[in-house]
Write a structure and sequence with these properties.
Chain lengths: ~180, ~675, ~150
């Protein structure tokens, strides 16, 4: 190794790493400006009024009245949505335990596709409403599918999950909250 | 079974990479020969394992194995085979697997063909490569496993975004990856050199071909991406200064600078610590590009699925790779003693100017790309930085760069004669003025900026040709002699000529299409005729058509010129039912002189909205890019760049600096 | 030329290069930056007419009107608390729909109508531009129980 240069010069060589350190700080902050972190302004407020027809060939139809008087879960899904498939087994498992009713809103989906989807994967929903043009989704503030809403006894939105449900979110947030609301 | 083999191979590759990333490094530092020797077989083994893993994933796509979640989310049994295969890397997980596979292939190439590298040095290079691979392998296995199973397996897949079902999109990303990953070679060589504390001309000889190869691939990828955006997005634009585009453009700028500064290290044994820094920065910008695209911190028209957990991992990885190497640089670089002196007016001086301008340009692009993020983080205000910013910052920086491009190659090493070089370029100067005069005279409405752009392009092109003419003694020697000289010209210098000519061609394309594009937005009824760019376009009506997985409204336009029917054009507005999505298929008729570009819109009463463009010389933009690619490939085939060639230079690794080879 | 002088020259050249770049950037930040506002912010920020900016929100239901020339459309962008009228001449993007997220780039006219030169629509149903999401978040509320009709009231 040759002798290091004079100290002043060495500081110049430090510059790149210092610039990068600053940059990294901003990038880290940038990660948490993520759109999925947005809480729903609907939380704590009554769920929007709606009255959806049934998906053709399936029992049901879903309206605001169905959500009153009990704690329930409303899941917005579509057969064309990849992440919905990921969360589907969780909903199936939850439905088997029968701890709370699960309602579905079939979002911008063709009835035959919705039916095929539920036939092959199982139907966890107690009732399904068909929102073919997405108007109800708009009122609910659906950014994309899937989204899941926890509704309390008074019909207010208590919690919202954007994107697919995961076992962690379900076990640590949704179900404990549901249990408290049911007391 | 096949997916498990792939998954298992990936895990094994991680294990091999861990060994390859540690033992040879220690071995090289402590002189433990067997540990050093481990690097080569490990590098080859890692490449083989990753190839198995990638082949397994490809197999799952080809046979549409819908028990694999990745296949379900990105493929469909009815998709054409081409897009099934392209689907392998058309998604987050698969593209990462391709990334590490390429990394390992590059590594094994060093292991197999870099026989002339000193063993400890080679071991260090391979170890650094392996450490990068460890990061990516872990990233995949922990956050984005391409082989995750899905139970129960669905009957069919989710398809692929129709916008992404296009041969252009299927094949340009792999080239971008090849380019990004190729720069990892320069990075690994730089880190190994810092560890050894020695950078010399022999080092530059090893680095140059790798950098050049990466640069060629990246250039090709960028050209392909720009072309895809032009004909698929239906806006008629070819570059949007979108974060994803900038992510590939920044390493390109830094890589271009590196390409030039490595020449100085090789020929003159100077600018060493700067070149090492550039090698680190170029690869860091490639990684940053990956971060920006994958983490979703920036909005983009191309946005992939995003996930903050992945972002945290990549950022941590970035911190280790970039932060670590820059720290190493801060500690070790001051010890790299500069070599040969040179006057500011010399070949070295002009290459240094090239470097300063290119890296400043890369910095302005970086700042423009990250500014929305910085402002959001500091003030919470949302802002977008678009074309005006880049036009105002990037554009002016290119002017001195292009001006110097004509002069630089004519300068001698060490001490050049600026006045002499400018004297030799008087024809280029005259040509620039002439072109401006002709354009001004021929075209009624033309901006000063466009005139200046044409002049600059003429200056570059003629300057490059004068340099070539001088080399082969054109007009100074008998034709037979000239031809003999042309044939004996090193390929690398013809490559340079081609690549620099490419810049001129691209510049002409940009100036022409930006200044003289004709655009008509009109409502047409069947039978209406409209004139655009000298062509008469008759609208014949629309028809409903059924595609394999969409319905479309197809317009029929008949194009004629001077009363002669030329061809019909059929733009489409497509509707896909699942997922609900609409796309625009522009009809484009490309010619060397300009493109006719037709887009059909919605029905308006008894007519249809349509957008017609004539874009003069727009194909030249990509044509120039292909010139650069060809030039790079030609230069790469030069015997001095061949992988075996540095053999004689290996002797030069002795601490005493070799005398600079005369050009 | 000594090593020291050469280094000095390099540093001076580098610094002047950077200086020019910084000057260019500062210049560009004046006009090259396009700020993003939600309809509510547009009201509170006293934007000067003619300044280039982007607005984002949802296209209000039943607000899209096509003018008689067939190419100009007017619609309202809402963040569910305030709305802005927008006028645009051209072919709207593939995914431009009532009730969907939209970003419009252009400038505010003296009459309070936003003259858009460029319309960006939501890419697909599984993705929303963070800008739109942020605008909706900033507006602070979704109208409770409001149907599309409820939204039209500014």
């Amino acid at each position: 190794m040759t002798t290091p240069g004079e100290p002043r010069r060495n500081l110049l060589y430090l510059l790149p790493v210092l610039v990068f350190a600053g940059l990294a700080g901003f990038l880290y902050q940038g990660l948490y400006l993520h759109p999925s972190e947005i809480p729903s302004p609907l939380i704590g407020k009554p769920a929007p009024a709606f009255d959806l027809p049934a998906v053709e060939g399936l029992p049901g139809g879903l309206s605001r009245a169905d959500l009153e008087g009990k704690v329930s879960l409303v899941s917005v899904f579509a057969s064309w949505c990849g992440p919905c498939r990921l969360e589907h087994p969780l909903l199936m498992a939850l439905a088997e335990k029968k701890r709370l009713p699960i309602y579905g809103i079939s979002y911008k989906d063709r009835p035959e596709d919705s039916r095929g989807w539920l036939q092959s994967l199982g139907n966890p929903y107690d009732k399904i409403g068909a929102d073919r043009d997405g108007r109800v989704g708009f009122d609910w503030g659906v950014y994309g599918v899937p989204e899941t809403y926890l509704i309390d006894r008074q019909g207010n939105v208590a919690f919202k999950v954007v994107g697919p449900l995961t076992p962690e979110v379900l076990e640590s947030q949704v179900l404990p909250l549901a249990a408290r609301l049911m007391k | 079974m096949i997916p498990e083999i792939g998954h298992f191979a990936l895990i094994l590759a991680l294990a091999v990479a861990m060994v390859q990333g540690t033992l040879p490094l220690v071995g090289a530092a402590r002189n433990i020969a067997p540990w050093v020797a481990l690097a080569r077989p490990a590098a080859v083994a890692q490449a083989v394992l990753l190839a198995i893993s990638f082949a397994a994933l490809t197999w799952c796509y080809v046979v549409s194995d819908f028990s694999v979640a990745n296949v379900v989310a990105n493929s469909h049994s009815l998709k054409p085979m081409l897009y099934k295969v392209a689907g392998v890397w058309g998604n987050h997980e698969g593209s990462l697997l391709l990334w590490v596979l390429v990394l390992a292939v590059f590594g094994s190439a060093v292991a197999l063909f870099g026989t002339n590298l000193p063993a400890p040095f080679r071991a260090r290079v391979l170890a650094v490569q392996a450490l990068i691979a460890v990061g990516f392998d872990l990233f995949m296995l922990l956050t984005s496993n391409p082989f995750a199973r899905m139970d129960p397996a669905p009957v069919d897949g989710m398809g692929l975004n129709p916008l992404l079902q296009d041969p252009g999109l299927a094949f340009h990303p792999p080239f971008l990856y090849l380019g990004y990953v190729g720069f990892s070679m320069a990075y690994s060589f730089a880190i190994a050199a810092l560890l050894e504390g020695r950078v010399d001309p022999a080092w530059a000889r090893w680095v140059r071909p790798w950098t050049l190869a990466a640069w060629v691939l990246l250039t090709f990828g960028i050209v392909g991406g720009s072309h895809w955006a032009y004909y698929e997005l239906g806006w008629g634009g070819w570059w949007f200064w979108d974060p994803v585009e900038n992510a590939s453009f920044m390493p390109w700028l830094a890589g271009t600078a590196l390409l030039h500064s490595a020449i100085v290290v090789e020929k003159r044994d100077t600018l060493k610590s700067w070149t090492v820094l550039l090698a680190i920065v170029t690869f860091s910008l490639s990684l940053l590009g990956t971060f920006l695209v994958r983490s979703g911190v920036l909005t983009s028209v191309h946005a992939f699925a995003t996930d903050p957990a992945r972002g945290v991992f990549i950022l941590g990885f970035l911190l280790v790779v970039v932060g670590g190497s820059l720290t190493l640089y801060a500690v070790r670089a001051p010890a790299l003693k500069g070599g040969g002196l040179f006057a500011p007016m010399s070949r070295e001086g002009s290459l240094l100017l090239n470097n300063l301008l290119l890296s400043t340009a890369a910095a302005t692009v970086l700042l423009g790309t990250l500014y929305p993020l910085l402002l959001d983080a500091v003030t919470g205000e949302k802002v977008s930085v678009g074309k005006p910013y880049f036009d105002m910052t990037f554009g002016p920086l290119m002017v001195p760069l292009f001006a110097a491009m004509g002069i630089g190659p004519l300068m001698a090493w060490k001490r050049g004669d600026l006045a002499g070089a400018i004297g030799r370029l008087r024809f280029a100067f005259l040509a620039a003025l002439l072109i401006a005069a002709v354009v001004w005279w021929q075209v009624s409405k033309v901006s000063v900026l466009a005139l200046f752009g044409y002049s600059l392009a003429a200056w570059v092109a003629i300057g490059v040709l004068i340099e070539l003419a001088e080399r082969i003694w054109l007009f100074k020697a008998p034709p037979a002699d000239v031809f003999r000289r042309l044939r004996r010209l090193p390929r690398s210098s013809i490559g340079m000529t081609l690549a620099h000519l490419g810049i001129a061609v691209t510049l002409i394309g940009i100036v022409s299409s930006e200044s003289f594009t004709e655009e008509h937005l009109i409502v047409l009824k069947p039978g209406d005729v409209t004139e655009v760019g000298g062509y008469f376009v008759a609208f014949r009506g629309v028809e409903e058509v059924e595609g394999p997985n969409y319905t479309a409204l197809r317009g029929r336009f008949e194009v004629s010129r001077d009363g002669k029917f030329l061809y019909a054009m059929s733009p489409e507005a497509r509707n896909y039912p699942t997922p609900p999505m609409a796309t625009t298929e522009a009809a484009i008729r490309p010619t060397l002189g300009g493109d006719l570009y037709v887009v059909i819109g919605e029905a308006q009463g008894d007519g249809w909205a349509a957008r017609l463009y004539f874009k003069p010389l727009v194909q030249w933009i990509w044509g120039g890019g292909l010139f650069m690619v060809l030039g790079g490939m030609l230069s790469l085939s030069d015997r001095r760049h061949r992988i075996g060639a540095p053999r004689q230079a290996a002797a030069g690794l002795a601490p005493a600096a070799r005398p600079a080879p005369a050009e | 030329m000594t090593r020291k002088r050469r280094r000095l020259l390099t540093v001076v050249a580098g610094m002047s290069c950077l200086g020019v770049a910084v000057a260019l950037m500062l210049n560009a930040y004046g006009d090259g930056l396009v700020f993003f506002y939600s309809p509510s912010e547009l009201e509170s920020h006293h934007v000067t007419p003619g300044q280039r900016l982007r607005i984002g929100g949802l296209v209000e239901e039943n607000s899209v009107v096509r003018q008689s020339d067939g190419l100009t459309i007017t619609f309202k962008v809402t963040d569910l608390s305030k709305t802005v009228p927008v006028s645009y001449r051209g072919i709207v993007p593939d995914l431009f729909r009532e009730g969907q997220g939209v970003v419009a780039e252009g400038s505010l006219g003296a009459d309070g109508v936003f003259m858009a030169s460029n319309i960006l629509a939501k890419h697909d149903e599984k993705y929303m531009p963070p800008e739109v999401a942020a605008a909706l978040k900033k507006s602070g509320r979704w109208k409770d129980g409001a149907g599309p009709e409820g939204v039209t009231k500014p």
